[in-house]
Amino acid sequence: MVDSRDTTSLQLDDAKQELSVARKNETSLEARYKKMKGRYDTLNNVHEKLKREFQELMATGEKYKDLAWLKESNEKLRNDVIKVGRASGWKGVEKRRKDY
What we know:
Elements: H1 2-88, H2 93-99
């Protein structure tokens, strides 16, 4: 019977040591998980910010295209007014053109 108790006691000690090692590993893994999660959250936030900035840039690019088209249209209209003015003999056309 003494052998049986010693064996059981040894098995219990071994199980306690395994449990202790498992708990240390768990703590270590939890710390690594928290650290990685923090890095992921940071990267995700930066990614979302960059996505928003990119969308704003794309919208701004469209606004610049619209502005360029508007300037070009205005220039064509001005040139047409000058041509019509010359054809009709209006002398103030060239002077007004320089005011713009």
